[in-house]
Amino acid sequence: MASRSTCQSLRSSLRQCRPTCEYAGSISSRKSSIRQISATASRLEVDWNADKSERPRWSYTPEEMKAPYPWKPQSAMKSWTTNSDPQKLDRFYVNLLGEGGESVLTDEIKWLAITHKSFDQGRRGFNDRLAFLGRRILTLQANLALVSSSTATQTQTPRNPKDTRARFEHPALNGLKNLSDAPIGEVLTKERLATLAKTMGMAQIMRWQPRMPDKLEASGIDVVLNTCLYAIVGAIALQRGGAYASEVAKQKILKPLGIS
Amino acid sequence: MSVRSLRLERWSGQLLSAPRTRTRSRAPCCLRQGQQCLSGSNTRSFSASAVSRNPRIEKEFVDEDGDGIGLFEAPTHPVQQEYPSPSPRAALRSSKLAALHARLGLPQKLPLQTVARTLVDPSADSNVDFNNASLAQLGGSIMSYHVSEWLLVTYPRLPMSVLFAAAYAYNGPKTLQLVAKEWGVDTAAAPGREVDPGYLQFEKLAPGTDYAAIKAAGGSSRPDKFNFFRRGMSSRVVYDDEFGDTIPKKNESALPIPTESAYAGFVKALIGSIHLHAGREAAKVFVKEHILSRQLAIDTLFQFKEPIRELSRLCAREGFEHPMARILSETGRLSRHPVFNVGIFSGKDKLGEGSGASLQEARTRAAVMSLKSWYLYSPGKNERVPSDMEAPGEKAAWEPVHIDIGEVIH
Prior knowledge:
By secondary structure, chain A is mainly α. In chain A, about 45% of the residues lie in helices and about 0% in strands.
């Protein structure tokens, strides 16, 4: 490694041959908060109403990300339109969450929660992370509901007659057998959740791009419906707290599926 | 002395009517009982009346009177029963278990018998009332919920692949094995009734078993009959488990399992048992202290394929000026070991810098640094998590946390 004096002399000689980089400032002039990536203020979803001239992010693809002209012929078979009407979306949320459902989530998150990765090649964001959290919440609430369900405890399967051991009895452990009687993998299946989402009207408002618009089942509409359902629960948890999200999961998803 | 004068048949009969005992530890009170204990130790049966007749004894005691008391009647006490796991009462006598309970500072409401149950894997004992399967299912969902919410609140911009990897690093089976070993939990060589309840009991795999092949042979829960379909990241949220790994279809719980799965099942079951006996907050505190307190160098989990392109797409999406790489400083350009410090700028803001032995390497490292500084944005390590609102008496209103729209697709 060259010594400091050698470096300095090298640098000074280089400076004479090359134009100085005006941005090569000293490190101390850098901002102390290393999390700032830009000098412009970060976008807060709640501030959108103040700035009416800017379009909301959910409604357009950033111009910089678009190619100057489309170089693939637009096939009529592959064309697929999705909802872009905010009122239709609001009606879906009111239908799902009840009165005042359209103001549970902020505007951007309302759209993000029902946007799949296939929509617009992922340029307007997608709901994977929200669905990741939402699925954890739903699984946990399903397990807790089964353990504390009195109807399931009353109708538990009888024990094996050959095994006459006396198990350890405790009131807290009474509901444990319900978890093995009703395996979660058979109760919360992809098909059941997809059917529930369709009855809510999710298929008409979610934003995605099917591989074959004339064959939605083969394009995986069930997976997209599940993702959007999980994502709504996850979004509510991050914007309204875990208690609210658990209630929504229990009342709006588990109860219609028969777990309470 | 003749057998007759001693009336040995009647003498034994009186002794045989004594109260039965289930334990083998009770000393035999007569020769006949003692020999039955010795001869019957090989039987394995669950039936209540395990009888073993020793023909040698029958010859010695001949019914000379013909009373019909008959050849000896074997005791009906089930001394020879071989249950696959220790009885719940044995948990109260185990010093290992009591020491584990005290060492972990488990709540007093959690009884030793439940802790003993958490140490029994379904491969050791298939009876659902005696193994930890249900407890592990409940505890696993509690733990993965707390880990995922903490990760999403602390690192809101993590890409999905890194999120899965971080979740695996915090509560995957290998980590849980480390955690349980740190707690001082040892495994029993083989499950059985005589095993001390403080040992982790499960059926061990034979050395050299290809467990991955066994798991893969059963097929997964995905409908991928034709394996040429690419298994994308988005569909993992619906089809796969919390780490993005495929869930095997066949779930035979009686088969042998690897040690890490057994340890993972134990830790999850312990969390489930704390939740049931001591409440939700106790389980959350336990997860926070033992799982979420671990250090993870999350920046090492990233792997970028084309960082320069990804950074350029990110700036285009966010509306930043197009990123430009500029040399900040350099030395030894014509020597054998040049060092170039390159910074990537969006307008006047420096997004990241990196150094390397060539201009290309330095630019790539700078792009990687810029992307990491974007994806690893964190509002802080001790932010409020959604489950804080589920605590009783929580008065402060919930502040919405930052939700990122997703990683850059390029």
